[in-house]
Structure formats: structure tokens, C-alpha cells
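User: Run a structure prediction on this.
Assistant: Running it now.
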Amino acid sequence: MTEKDLYPSIDDLVRAKEITARTGNYCKSSGFDSLYDLVSCYERGELPEIKGAGPKTYIELNRLYQPMISLPSNSVSSQPDVNEVNEIMERLKSLKLHDFKRKAIYEKYDRFIQDYSARVQIWLTKIPLDVFVSEYLFYCDDKSLNIRYSYVNNLPETIDLKEKLKAEITRQFYLPEEDSISEEICNHYGLSCSVEFPVSYYLKYRCYPMFWILEKQLENCEDRDLNVLKKTFKVYRNQQPLTLTEFATQYSLSRERVRQIRKLIFEEILCPDSLFFNQYRNDWAHYKPETKDVIWEQDVQKYIDDEQSNFSAKFVLQILLNILYYDDYISYGGFAAPLQASCWKNAFLVNKRFSAVFDFDKFRTEFKLSLKKNKSTYSLDVVNYVGKCKCWKKYKADKKHDIAGIATDIIRYEFNLNPEMDGRIKLIVRKKRTIFDVMYEILRDNGNPMHISDIFSEFKRRMPKHYYSDPTQLRHYLLKHEAIACQNRKSVYVLKEWTHVKSGTIRNAVIEFLTKKRLPQPARDITDYVKQHFPGTNVASVRTSMFNDTQQRFVLFQDALFGLSRKKYPPKYERVDNALPSFTQRLADVEKFIVANGHFPFASSTNRGERIIGVWWIRITKGIYKIDEFKQKEIERVRTQYAGCEENKRLFQWNENCEKVKRFLLENHKTPTVATDKFLYHWLGRAKTDFIEHRMSNDQQHRYLELTKLM
């Protein structure tokens, strides 16, 4: 007799009613003819694969083979350890009294289930944590087979879930509260566990700093659409939002595409159904205060300060409106849809029961218009004003005082008019600011002389909508203003009331100095006084300014002394004709010099007479001195007539400079630099370029090569 004959067949088990006929049929159809075949599978550590069998079939078979074989190593005893059960249950009970730890256990239970096969997830997700703990956590594997739709193949995963759950309950029991809060923030919001602020905030207020958390989430997100939100809306305080064109240029997009994305953001993110904000809707509940008629930016500023957030109050109001207040409030001055500019300076929320009967947009427009038309000073009774105005959609007498309170707030924040003790608002006739006023304010606020271009930049900042586009358009207002004076002729302006700077021109300073003196003064003394107020000037400039005075207010005396034409000086001071030579005289001097010397006069000559007419000739030919058409023709005549002499001048000048470089090389044994001789350094550079580009004569090339050998 074989060992197999010692075990009953499947048919014998059915006849003895050890198993049902259904179980017997399943076993025979799967190739198991006797109990020996089933026991052999279990002895090998395998589960018999019976086609179509359910939990009840395996439970019937388990009763047969369990007394005959040893339990697998991963099985638990049929009777749980009482001490273990009591310990785990006490820990779980204490965790349920702690918000974070209770929530963490339930979330970990759901997360553990998601790690298993889809078939196991189907039946485990139908079992709450409390039921699983009480009915399955501490019992043998067979108990799990009583779960509907559970199979023997699922037992390893069920056992693994039990062990993980026990370990997590123990870990959470011994975890400090601070670590538990930090772990919750990390898991729930995807932030770093090392951040201490949200933990300390929760311990103090027993709620999450949601604005701080949201700001960190936005910072960590580089999604293009959210970048449009952060850059083109005023999300942060002290932020200057980018225009569509600026953002498009920065991110290499078309302006139209940016507009489309912005419209999408407004419709899908900045809306009550936004998934971005509403995924943690329950965590925002503590921000909903007692019912108020109106909520201003100032009312939510405390949230921003307490949570150390950089969000703008307008953005905070938008978030609260979308998450908490949408059913009860309507927004004014908030984030507007694309191409819809808001006329409000501030953002605020008004209860819908008031906005349904009163048009606050129209009220602001009408009140602003009444301020412009106001021609007298008086105290405004806001209640009577609201009761008589035409902004009612549907007049409600019982809401008049409440709406008057909201209107008072609007007047205070939008128009900077504070109510008096009796609630009235004093309206003062305000003179409209003119450009003259703005010019004065710019200089007064700056406190120092300003160039007209700097004044224009500040003017456009203060009045960005003004159509002026060029600084010279402001010159009329600066010159005509009674309190503004110019400083020299370089478009620099000052206030006449200032004592630390001097207004006027160099000639004004000269007149002021000579007025105080009884006798004519030398140019050096005059210049020393003028330089106190105009440090950039020199003696030559002051002398030229006095000579060129079209009003002939200055007189030249012998010994190079200067005085005023309106003053009388002692007879011993003889006047000298201080008129500058005429154009005809100067041109004649130039022609005489060319005929005598064979070249045009040099402005750098050591001879004073040649240097004077040389400087005059350069300034005339370069257009520094303005001349009429007749004089211009005379200049062209001289240049044409003495063209050969002009070429001689250039050759003479080139040869002279070449000799200067040669002397420098022989004396210093090195080439000139910017520090040693700036003029010769740049002349050598130009000579090298002319040599390379073949712009030199044969003689010049020969002399340049001699210089290179010396170098």
C-alpha cells in the first residue's frame, strides 16, 4: 500500500460530508483526486490552484489539511496574543485623540493599500481602517478569507498589510508632535520637512499658514502658465507686473499667445472652481471670520504679516473670494479679465445683499465727477447723499445706513477723504495741478539742481499718461515759472528760493561780482568768484563770455581790467575797444597768413597770433560758429583758392608729429602710451592704420618705417 492510499479520495470526503459537492467538483476539475494531492501542495509551500474556487472552498479545505501539516512561517496563530492586542489597541486609541497622528494613520492605511495588486485593492478599499483593525489585524490568515472577493493568493499581501499597519501605529505613537506636524506638511503639501516656520505657526495658532504654504508651492513650480500668473498679475507686494509684450519677449512667445494663457488662467485658476486652490479647501476654513459688510485689503493684511508672506493684499482677497466668500461676496478692484482695466485703486469685497441693490461702480464714478465739479467747501452727509443718489438698483430703506457705511469706506480709501467725528466728510475745493505745479514739486523734492532730461524722466513717472514725449517740451514751463531759474546755459534748473546753489548764468555771476566792486577788476579775480558757483569754468571762458555779451554790459579797460558799462569809474581808467574782430577781419588775417607762410594757420601753434586765427578757422569750418550763406561762400572761396596750401598744412603737420614721435623714442627709449603722451599714442595708431590701408605717400611710408625700426 502506498502513502497516497492512506489519504481519502475526494469522493470519500464528499460522501462523508467533510466537504461539499461543489468543493469536490472544483478539486477534481483541477486535477486533485485525493486529500494527498492537496496536502502535498501545502507541504511544498504552495497554494493549490483550484479553478473557480472562492474563499468558502479554501476555508473547507483548510479545515482538512491544517491539523495534518505545520503552519507556514508567515502565518499567525489562530488565537491572537492578548498582550499584543491590548498594546496596539491602546496606542491606536491614543493616536485617535491627536489630529495629525490620527490623520497620518488613516492616510498611511490608504497609501499601503495602493501598493498592492489591483485585485487586492478592490476588496481592501471597501474595508474601513477601524473594521480592518477590529476584525482582521490580530487574527489568523483564514480570517482574511472571510472578506468578500478575497482569495488565498491574496494572503501574502494581506499579511504584509497587517505588519506594516502595526509598525506604523507603533512609530506614530512614539513620534514627537513637532516631527508629526512637519511630516504632515511635507506629505500633504509637498514641502521640505526642514522648514521650521509652519511647524511653529501651527503650534501657536493650531492651523496651517496657508498663504505661506501657497507661496512656497508657487515658488517651486516652474509651469509656464503659472509663470504668466506670477509675472503678469500683481501676485506679490511691491511687484510691477509685466505687460503682455514684455512677458512675450522674455519667454520667446507671441503677445497673442500670452493673452490666451492669461485668459485661461483667469477662467481656470482665478475662479471659484480652481483645482489649484480648492485641493486643500478644508485647510482654509479658519480664514473665514464673522460676517462683515465689506472686506478691504487692510482687513487681510494681518494674515500676510503673521504668515511672513510676500503676497499682495489684492491676491489674498482673490484667493479668499474663490475659496470661501464666493457665495456671499462680490469683488471690486480685484484681478480683472484680460482687456478689462479696473478703475478702482483698492480691492475689496462687498456682501452680495448690498451689491444686489446698489451699484458701487457707478457710485465711485459719480462721486469722482462731483468732486471735479465742486466749487465750494462744505461737509457732506453721506447718508443723505447715498439716499438721494441714482446708484440704487432697487431702493431699500432698511439698507441705507449700511450702504452709507460702505460708501464712507470707499470715499476714505479711494479718495483719501477721512470722515470727521460726526461722520460727515469735509469736501475742499482742490485746485487742479498744472504742469507748472509738477515742475516745482519735482525740483523741491529733489533738493538739488536738475538737468531738463532728469526733470522729464521724473515728470513721466509722475504723469505717465501725459502726451509729452521730449524733454524740450518742458523748457517753456521751466523758463516761465516764477519760482524756477536756470543755472548756466546747460539746461540745468534750480529753485530761486534755494540758498545752497546759485541760479543764473556765468554773466549773471560776473555782473553780481562787479556790482559789488567800486573799481574795475582783473579777469582772474572775476573768475575766482564765478568758480564758487560754476566750478567747471576758467579764465578764458569768463573773458569770452564778457566779450560776446550781445547787450554790451561789460567794458574792457587798460591793463586787462573789466567793469560794467552802466557804472562810472575814475577818469584814470581808460576804456579799450573790446569788440572782437569782425568776420571780414578774421578772414583777411587768415589769407594774409596763408600767403606769407604757404599753409593754413595751426590751432596748436606756439605763436599766439597764429593760434588765435587757427582756432577761429577750425571753429568756422566745423560749424561751431553759425554764419550766414554769404559768409559760408567766402569760406568756400578761401578753401578752394588755397587748396594746395591746405594740403601743405596737413603734410607739414604730419611731418612735425613724426619728428615729435622720433624725439620721444630717442629720449625715452620706449613707445608713447596713454599715460606718457596721449596725443602721440593716438597719432601712432592712426599712422599705423593709414600705412596698412595704403593711404600714405612714398615719403611718409619711408619715414613711418624708420619709426618702426626705432620702436
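The radius of gyration is 49 Å.
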